[in-house]
Amino acid sequence: MSRKNLVSAALIIFSVVCFNSAEAQPKTDALLRNILSANKDSLFQLVLSHPEAYRLQIIYTQINRDKNNKPSFTNYYFNVDSLFYFNPASTVKLPLAALSLEKLNEMGIAGVNKFTSMQFDSAYPRQEKELHDSTAETNYPSIAQFIRKAFLISDNDAYNRMYQFVGQQAINRELHAKGYASTRITREFMGYTDDENRHTNPIDFINEDGTAIYHQPMQYNTDSFDFSHTVKIGNAHYDSNDSLINEPIDFTKVNNFPLKDLQQILQSIVFPLSVPERQRFNLAKGDYAFLKQFLSQYPSETNYPKYDTSQYYDSYVKFFFQDSLHHAMPSNIRVFNKVGWAYGFLIDASYIVDFKNKVEFMLAATVYVNSDGILNDNKYDVETVGHPFMYQLGQTIYNYELRRKRKYKPDLSDFKIEYEKRDANDTRPAIKDADN
Length: 436
Fold this sequence. Notes:
By secondary structure, the protein is an alpha+beta fold. 29% of the residues lie in helices and 17% in strands.
């Protein structure tokens, strides 16, 4: 790493420590600390040496199989604390996808499933209609298409529409009932007020000929939230009018998704039988298969949406394998994951499979890279610090797993998925600029 970048990275230590509002009692395990210490990369060690400044948290999940191929999971932590806030950004799309499929199953309405066409109306100030989706083969929105877009490139509209379908009240009630009491999802990615976020659009499910199957009226959340834990980050921030405000940005009332909850929800989707029954989502076998496919499928393999692969390359949302010099993914590896990035935070929660070497593990991490301490200025150290750190972290754990001895090698055939193939004869223009 260049001296210039090291200096830039070091500046973050002062700018963040001064405004660290978390009352953290972080958990760190010696095994993970020792594994991470083996990587002598200067940037990697700089971030590890200042976990509070970089708001760094890591969960490494070791997976061991018995003679019947049943997996067991052991989590190892580095600086993990549920009160140590990070903005979850797009990682909230993961539970929204599962909750959307769960709601469809529990509605039990003939002709309404994840592939059914939908149309979104408006019934409250600033709500936006969505009657068609040009990225879909049917030209209509659907839950399936939202999940594809949310996972393939982390599309924001897809999240907003799933939020509107499930509803703010049901999102939080269901997650809390599953044991994720610290998780709070209160916001669409629309810049809405608290009141506007409580109201969600009316929705129609329709047949191919446009006739109605089911109408869901506007929903309103009457439940209250616990905002007693104040979270303020940074030295200054730009507000919605692009005015510089010389005080920290207040994250107290926005989405909150602790890393432990993110890791556990991913595990519950990839390995549903490994978590207590109350934590599982009510999904059909085909739903789990669909989620696993698009958690791991690449934009280059997908026809709908058809993304420009020079912009949305295979490792675009695979932070632990996103090498700045090479955007291709190793052919023997698949990553089932969800990432997020916003306000200088980068987050990734992954289940990683190496079919050639019979290796599997989970890894979740968040890091904050904002050396000037100003939020909403679009000047974050993502390319110079964030992505290089996440790549080094992923490779450190992966290389440890390659060397780790296992009593029983895993049978990973359940994760060998028949992915789509891009149609070489498709002349439609590719999507180059999505809101994500």
